Description:
Oligomer: single chain
Amino acid sequence: MDNTTSRPTQAGHSAEEDALQQVLGIEREAQAILAEAEAEAGRLLDRARQQAEELIQQAEQQAQQEAQQAAAATLQQAQQEAATMRAGVEAELEAWERRAQARLDEAAARVSALVAFGREEQHGPGH
């Protein structure tokens, strides 16, 4: 059997104690590295969530703008179609009024002729 592992070192510790201290030191370093890695992962996750939220907000804003633009374009098109229809209806109305006025003038002339004819019959010609 070799007794070198239980012999005290210059610091007064055995080689086994030194090895154990080294292992514990390595374990503490590993735990510190792990804690830092977990903290960094948490920061990365927070940053990713924030970026995702910003992207979602940008997408929502863009969608709202596109919807507003589409609504404005649709409204403009509807207004143009309404103006075209209104112009057509107004043109038809004017044509109808001209035809009605011509017939009204003709009807007034006939009524006047009938009234004049009726007077001639009642009173004789020349009254």
